[in-house]
UniProtKB/TrEMBL annotation:
It comes from Paraburkholderia rhynchosiae. It comes from the Bacteria. This is Response regulator.
Length: 110
């Protein structure tokens, strides 16, 4: 888990994660700035970006930076559906047999 955007960027650029759940209001930089930075780098193709926000409709132009928006509050079922639907590099048979189905990092306020 990363508690700020800079740490999230450092971890995500290692290529070890396939899904990133991110708040918009991080202590150092906006979650959309993290997404923008990842979109500008080759590693971005391997990261499925999920924004957790209180108001997805108000995000406007930054909505295109993320693959999925989860509207807060969200249910465990909605979270599980996002994880199951994420295009991970893991083999489909392996995904069904193991947890988590993908490597993911959560970036959130501490």
């Amino acid at each position: 888990m990363a508690y700020d955007g800079e740490t999230a960027l450092r971890l995500l650029r290692t290529g070890a994660f396939e899904i990133n759940f991110r708040d918009e209001n991080l202590p150092d930089i906006k979650g959309s700035a993290v997404a923008w930075s990842l979109r500008e780098t080759p590693i971005r193709s391997a990261v499925f970006l999920v924004s957790r926000t209180g108001d997805a409709a108000s995000q406007g132009d930054i909505a295109r930076l993320f693959d999925v928006y989860l509207q807060k509050p969200f249910s465990c079922e909605a979270l599980m559906q996002v994880i199951e639907d994420a295009p991970c590099s893991s083999d489909a048979n392996t995904r069904q047999a193991t947890w988590p189905p993908c490597h993911f990092i959560r970036t959130t306020r501490h």
